[in-house]
Design brief:
The structure is a homodimer of 286-residue chains. Chain A is an alpha/beta fold and 286 residues long. Chain A folds into two domains: 4-105 and 273-285, ATPase, nucleotide binding domain (Nucleotidyltransferase, domain 5, 2-Layer Sandwich); 119-268, Nucleotidyltransferase, domain 5 (2-Layer Sandwich). Chain A contains eight helices and twelve strands. Chain A has a five-stranded mixed beta sheet with strand order 3-2-1-4-7, sandwiched between helices. The first copy, chain A, has a five-stranded mixed beta sheet with strand order 10-9-8-11-12, sandwiched between helices. Chain A has a two-stranded antiparallel sheet with strand order 5-6. In chain A, helix 3 crosses helix 8 (274-282). Chain A is globular. The two termini of chain A are 12 Å apart. The relative contact order of chain A is 0.16. The mean pLDDT of chain A is 96. At the A-B interface, strand 9 and helix 6 of A face strand 9 and helix 6 of B. Chains A, B: Its cofactor is Mg(2+). Chains A, B: It catalyses: D-fructose + ATP = D-fructose 6-phosphate + ADP + H(+). Chains A, B: Keywords: ATP-binding, Carbohydrate metabolism, Kinase, Magnesium, Metal-binding, Nucleotide-binding, Transferase, Zinc. Chains A, B: This is fructokinase.
Chain lengths: 286, 286
């Protein structure tokens, strides 16, 4: 039985796996994200150590070029991460392994995994949001990731400022106080000097961050009527945060949306495995 | 050659058409929206006067129930419009004509028409926004309207308040100052006592309304990477408004989104015919 490979290419670490299928993983590994040359070489060497793979799926941090007709297909494009702007990912592995490569954003991969194997089984549509170093989202409609011109960049919506959070300027280099600039891990740290889970549970930060994330959920429902919103990533591990987001999103919606009670905001059914499982799902089948 | 019928069921008027196909209309008619019983009867009688149709497509104002397994399928549900809440539309015509009925929101129909025959030919995805008595939107992904749990209600996103528009409370009965509560025709009239096109071109209202509508465009791009955003409806006929929305959306995006230059905000390619053409496209083909 053949092997497929998966790479979840993150800004902090690369998660790697080989398996007979996305649900039959035989080995996993993680490497810290260093320079592109070193990181890609290490990832390739680890995959090679498990024998010949027949296909590889890559879910990458972004922005990425997903246009198969573009010279930049399979590249990370204008990331602020040092060394990684205009960096070829998919082509490196295509050259090395001579196998078909599936390439998409990490969050589109995770959304696919949650829809096929996790919290969104049988859901008509699903969004996967990660709240960590950055904020990103992938959207599944008709069982496929939504691409449009390129891919969603959900962290860059412009939420209403919370009345008790009007001073902080925001940390997004492009939009300052977009969602990522206000509610990502580094944004939380920038104004309160701690992560959300380090702050006492009665600290106003919990209410403020839940309000911003609930605005993303509200907006997703208004624009796409999405059935299941999965919220993962490091910040979402803060005790009580998911409850607060659910509660606040319900307040914002005011029971207006059609099919209102069918909308769900949930934790990842696959836990931390959504990303790597998604990468394996992106591997083209023979 | 057989005939198909189309009904664009609006809160102000019902537009009717019969044709050999969506592009071969042989007769059109409009009737003012009165009580449901009277309006539906008049629509049916006009359609009957043109001979036997083989299928009927209906694009309706909403919210509507689109779940074919629901007892409420084909009904308008919780509209504030007097007399029309919990009103059966599709079932009335199915009973009368004994033909297959296609039923969706008016804006999903218009989006389909603009994608297949209008401003979005060959676009990977398209949103159709109407700004008039209300604000609504439909979204086409993979050549089909996006449904999710039910259908989008794009007018109910929560834009940031413009710095020069902080007093007005908003007119949405559910959310007060959601987009529809701030930027629909009645909301414009409520604070300035005139329509946008009646106000001088240097009146601040133009900048304020453009800012709110640009936030919808920005949010659609962030969440779906949508390629073409078509903006129609009465308010969008205000001279200069589309330009202002394009300009403001570009400012908000700050050239960040991947594939940035491919995103377009345009007027309807089908002009005022997007809705009725969409209704005809919703008619099931034999």
């Amino acid at each position: 039985m053949g092997l497929i490979g998966g790479i979840e290419a993150g800004g902090t670490k690369f998660a790697l796996a080989v398996g007979h299928s996305p649900t039959e993983i035989i080995a996993r590994h993680e490497i810290p994200t260093g320079s592109p040359a070193k990181t890609l070489e290490e990832a390739a060497a680890w995959l090679e150590s498990h024998g010949q793979i027949s296909a590889l799926g890559i879910g990458s941090f972004g922005p990425v070029d997903l246009d198969r007709t573009s010279q930049m297909w399979g590249h990370i494009t204008n990331t602020p991460k040092p060394g990684w702007a205009i960096c070829e990912i998919a082509g490196f592995f295509a050259e090395r392994f001579k196998v078909p490569i599936g390439f998409d954003t990490d969050v589109n991969g995770a959304a696919l995994a949650e829809h096929q194997l996790g919290a969104g089984l049988d859901a008509s549509s699903l969004a996967y949001i990660t709240v960590g170093t950055g904020i990103g989202g992938g959207l599944i409609v008709g069982s496929k990731p939504v691409h449009g011109v390129a891919h969603p960049e959900m962290g860059h919506i412009l939420p209403r400022r919370h009345a008790l959070d009007l001073e902080f300027i925001g940390i997004c280099p492009h939009h300052r106080d977009c969602l990522e600039g206000l509610a990502s891990g580094p944004a939380i740290n920038a104004r309160w000097g701690a992560s959300l889970s380090e702050l006492p549970s009665d600290h106003i930060a919990h209410e403020i961050i839940a309000d911003y994330l609930a605005q993303l959920a509200h907006t997703l429902i208004a624009l796409t009527s999405v059935e299941v919103i999965v919220m993962g990533g490091g910040v979402m591990k803060t005790p009580g945060l998911l409850d607060r987001v659910q509660h606040r999103a319900s307040e914002l919606g005011a029971a207006y949306f059609p099919g209102n009670t069918k909308h769900k905001i949930v934790a990842p059914g696959l836990g931390d495995q959504a990303g790597i499982t998604g990468a394996l799902l992106l591997a083209p089948s023979a």
